[in-house]
Design brief:
The structure is a single chain. The protein is an alpha/beta fold and 628 residues long. The protein has 20 helices and 26 strands. Strand 1, helix 1 and strand 2 form a beta-alpha-beta unit. Helix 6 packs parallel to helix 9. It starts with 18 loop residues before the first strand and ends with a strand.
Amino acid sequence: MYGKFDNYFNKENKSFHNSIWIELIGFDKDAEDYGVEEYIKTIGFVPDSVSLHLTSINFVNTHKGMETEYVLPPYACSYGGHPQNDLRFRQDWTNYNLRSLISTLQGNGIKVFASFFDLVDENDDFCLKHPEILAKSTDSDSPEKGIMMIKRFADGSFYEDYLKNMLIKTVNDYGFDGVQLADGISCPRNAIWFADFSDDIIEQSGLNIPDGTDKIKYIQTEKRCEWINFYRNRWNSFLAKIINSLKHNGTLVAVNSAWTRDPVEALYRYGADYKFIDSLGVDYFIVEDVSSDLAILATEDNHGYKFSYDERKMLHYEFVANLMAINAHTKNMKITPLFMIWDNQEQWNVIHHAPTAMQRAAAANFSHFCVKDGNLSPVTDGPHFCLGDALTSDDWKFIRLSIDNAYVSDAIKTEGATFIWSNKKSERELELFIEKGLWHSAKWLANILRYGGAVHAVANIEDIENVSGDIAVANYSLLDNSEKAVIDGYNKGRVITVEYTNMPECKNILTPNAPGWPRPLKFGDVPFEYICNCVDIINKNANAKIIFEKEECNITEVVTGENSSVIFVENNEYYYSLPLVETKRKIKKIKIITKPDGYPLKYTENTFKVRVPGRGIDIAYIEYEKNL
């Protein structure tokens, strides 16, 4: 392991929020302090918070209070009740044990969140008593069964009102500092084109289905926009009720993103409205950046969808683009993306099966930036480690070093253009995506990044006064007149527009044919030559480029001083690549921090070559000759 140890993880760096998602099996019920001291020693730092993975919202639904001690259900003692991890078998935790663990963690300066999915066992007593609130998918064989948050009990009362009251009682009885609203609670688990079409939900929607009509097909083909708007407004109402109640209680709130879809696709697939969530005063938005593990998952893991090799390569850039878009779209929440390590229950393992991808994901999070209120900040406000149990001290040393190497403490700007985001335009992009498969802004950004475009910073159009240098604007024609005037008046660099509207109307063919979110949506065709031409125009003023074209690599240059930069060189292939990087400025000194000191680096005054590991990253610290 090579790099800048303690560059990020040090006592002086207080700008970020470091959190760990962990199951109870990660602690030891039988130890005097529940193994907390040993755990902190193993991970090598004191996290700002941990989120206890309690699996199911039924933990809240069936909370019995604290008057007597009782054993918690197996799913709360380990994710889904799995029997063991590498350190211990699942233990029978009691409600009193859990309350004491929370107190012990807090005594070590760690805030404690409770996290839940919508997932339930349909044979649990609560579900047998209330089957009417279970989600109904068009896929009857779906293995993921859960509660639909916006449904009503048989007596007509809303489940969310029951949940709100039980959630506050659970938080207060155990002494949790916060709640993480995770999958199926932060947004619907299934895409809204597959669930829920029950009579309850359709009645709430107010849609009138003609007699003798297939209700699902009718909604999917004739009422697409209305269905999206219903889910958007209804889920906003649900979240407002839950989050406002928690905030009034003094409870911190973290909310998972809609499977790391960008703001437009999140609305289309799930009715998830990130801007509204931001307005509720949410403390942390946990963006589910799963690019490092999704690319290695099997077809069965991906709901039956088999990614092509090119699609697997694209995933990294989609998630980077989506993370950038979410940053620009929201204003107040801290963005704390998942940092994927491993998951015993879900059976994926990045740290041992794809460690170079872990390093690359860390680098992407800290080498891409958002301009907000005049500040250039990484698109992450800190990692949410997933999951954090049963790892060795050496595992954690590698994890910490991945982030230490990625972090650039003195970033001034990125080479290339700044991508300009518009919230108002995104609404119009959604409409035209439905009508004709139009590429929306995040789709453009992902493709530009994928094919080497130097667009590693993003800014909302409201912050454009704090931007200098070239800017890139997607779908300029969809801006309203006031925003067009802002772009037209920009004079601190080139204005590069990327837009392709020559697409035939293809309404009603856009519904994905499987409920799983990994399945790509159907977009209109944009000529590859047009994308490449856009990339060439964007890169015209950038300092560095790859000139050895046989290897599929990309670069990001972060400027750190008048004569210094950090260049990240990433590899899209699964095998070694040896790109030749050319810089316009003359190189005075260079150090590849991810290589050993004895690494035979080949460089000239304007080029350097590095052997980049498969799906990995190398990081070059460069000092340039002074400009005359």
